[in-house]
Amino acid sequence: QVQLVESGGGLVQSGGSLRLSCAASGRIYSIDAMGWYRQAPGQQRELVATITSGGITNYVDSVKGRFTISRDNPKNTVFLQMNSLRPEDTAVYYCNAAQTLFGVKYNYWGQGTRVTVSS
What we know:
The chain is mostly beta strands. Helices cover 0% and strands 61% of the residues. The chain has no helices and 11 strands. Strands 2, 4, 5, 6, 9, 10 and 11 form a 7-stranded mixed β-sheet that branches. A 4-stranded antiparallel β-sheet has the order 1-3-8-7, with no helix packed on it. The radius of gyration is 14 Å and the shape is elongated.
């Protein structure tokens, strides 16, 4: 099992910045990609950004140029730097880790951290 603990959410004004962190612990070897997803009220969970163990990143179009995902592999931590925040970024943000062990894929989620952007 992999445990993910997020931190860094909060309330910020439009145009402001926040930095989310997610620390992985437990059976942390062979984690492939880590990433951030978000879920706004009444909407489905959507991908925000992912990063592979090799540093390859992927972003949803709506955050490109504003959000940056990074990863500290020795510390098994992934970050999401969010700049120029907009009210539509308001959501609960979830950390995700994808792991492959002996050919079996596992998917883990954190408990979520709430981000609220006021206009």
